[in-house]
Structure to design on (135 residues):
């Protein structure tokens, strides 16, 4: 049995609380607040304490799905990305960049949310981006 802790940042809000994710044999089993984090100083909200649970939830999507013949089918990442790029390009050409909007997630890092807004604004050319963060 391999026990491991990994220092990371909570994905739920913009506070940036630090904690350790506990894993046994590669499976997340718990969360320990970082006592040395200058943000949360060893404390966590209820979401932070339970953050490890959504990662392995049985309903979480782990592979890309594309609708084919009216049904969602599992496809490779390359196929899913090509499909998405083609659809975005077609929508942008037909209706302009402001016909596209993006919705960021509270369950990814601030850096990943930054990349999405940068892609929306610089890549697609729209300011239509929002975020679902709720404390």
């Amino acid at each position: 049995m391999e026990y491991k802790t990994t220092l990371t940042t909570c994905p739920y809000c913009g506070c940036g609380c630090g904690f350790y994710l506990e894993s046994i044999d590669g499976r997340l089993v718990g969360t320990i607040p970082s006592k040395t984090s200058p943000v949360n100083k060893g404390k966590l909200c209820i979401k932070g304490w339970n953050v490890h649970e959504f990662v392995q939830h049985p309903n979480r999507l782990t592979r890309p799905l594309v609708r084919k013949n009216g049904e969602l089918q599992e496809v490779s990442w390359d196929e899913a990305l090509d499909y998405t790029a083609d659809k975005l390009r077609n929508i942008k050409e037909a209706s302009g960049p402001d016909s596209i909007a993006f919705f960021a997630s509270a369950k990814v890092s601030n850096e990943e949310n930054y990349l999405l807004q940068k892609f929306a604004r610089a890549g697609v050319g729209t300011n239509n981006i929002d975020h679902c963060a709720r404390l």
